[in-house]
Design brief:
Bound molecules: ligand C2E, calcium ion
Protein name: EAL domain-containing protein
Structural class: alpha/beta
Number of strands: 9
Strand order of the largest sheet: 1-2-4-5-6-7-8-9
Radius of gyration: 21 Å
Number of helices: 12
Order of helices and strands: HEEEHHEHHEHHEHEHHEHEH
Organism: Sphingomonas alba
Length: about 280
């Protein structure tokens, strides 16, 4: 039994070790990914629930690893945040997204995810302003998607950053709403223009009983009282789309209208006012 225990211990250490070095390898690969042109930005349409006009696109970063194939942002964004690369990657996404959006018809917006680390950088407002100027994109066409992680950092400049971003004229969306611990407090604190209702309430809502509908209805009512738009994420089926419409959500994002695609696909989609 003792020998088996030792063997187990040894195996455990080995797997810990290989996990650590695997991470190290991935981290090194990520450090070079930008320079090697392995990162690119995909765009997913966000569509109005009334009429089906496209109101914008969300920029979603992609990594084509030369050996491993595509690696999802759920995996490499946290890694980038931990090892100090998120600023560089985030700025690349912002630049690329704003440049591409500048070729779309004027009211069509671009939504860019902002990591809390980027948000808390004292230069963030300056960076965003410079990128908008560089590509002549009207500030109102840029929407920044922020999670409550922004409020967790003990940063006394948070309020000021929000005020400066509002003054610049960009829009602010509270992402993944409903998944955190005290999202209501954050709505009070910051001047959001939009709430993005998390997929966990949306996907399958039409067939999972009335609880999800009740929650979505409450979020819509709250958003309306506060003068904010709502986007339901993760709409995949016609039943869910119909429910989302009935509940009064203003915009929809999900596979039913389009998966994230490249800049060419987005430009085509953006210039067609309606979709079938
Ligand atoms: P998110 O910001 O909540 O983005 C929405 C995610 O839901 C995207 O996954 C999108 O492809 C997926 N999605 C949209 N509609 C549907 C649907 O109908 N069904 C299903 N099953 N999924 C749907 P993705 O692209 O894998 O991104 C995952 C997360 O990675 C994002 O979640 C965001 O938190 C992060 N991320 C992506 N790009 C960036 C970026 O440029 N910067 C930062 N900081 N984070 C990013
Ligand atoms: Ca997002
Ligand atoms: Ca989200
Ligand atoms: Ca998410």
């Amino acid at each position: 039994a003792k020998a088996a225990g030792r063997g187990k211990h040894c195996f455990y250490e080995q797997s810990m070790h290989s996990e650590a070095s695997d991470r190290q390898i991935l981290e090194n690969d990520l450090r070079q990914a930008l320079d090697r042109g392995e990162l690119w930005v995909a765009y997913q349409p966000i569509v109005r629930t009334t009429g089906e006009d496209v109101c914008g696109f969300e920029a979603l970063v992609r990594w084509n690893h030369p050996a491993r194939g595509p690696i999802g942002p759920d995996k490499f964004i946290p890694l980038a945040e931990e090892c100090g690369m998120i600023e560089k990657i985030g700025t690349f996404v912002l630049r690329t997204a704003v440049k591409d959006a500048a070729t779309w018809p004027d009211p069509v917006r671009i939504a860019v995810n902002l990591s809390p680390i980027q948000f808390n950088n004292p230069n963030i407002v300056e960076t965003i302003s410079a990128v908008l100027n560089e590509h002549k994109l009207r500030a109102g066409r840029l929407e920044l998607e922020i999670t409550e992680g922004v409020f967790l950092a003990d940063n006394s400049a948070t309020d000021e950053t929000f005020a400066n971003l509002k003054a610049l004229g960009v829009r602010l969306a509270l992402d993944d709403f409903g998944t955190g611990y005290s999202s209501l407090g954050y709505l009070k604190k910051a001047p959001f223009d939009k709430i993005k209702i998390d997929q966990s309430f949306v996907r399958g809502a039409a067939s999972t009983g009335s609880r999800n509908s009740a929650i979505i209805r409450a979020i819509v009512s709250l958003a309306e009282s506060l003068g904010m738009d709502t986007t339901a994420e993760g709409v995949e089926t016609h039943d869910d789309l119909q429910l989302i419409r009935e509940l009064g959500v203003s915009q929809v994002q999900g596979f039913i209208f389009g998966r994230p695609g490249d800049a060419t696909a987005a430009a085509e989609y953006a210039s067609s006012a309606t979709i079938e």
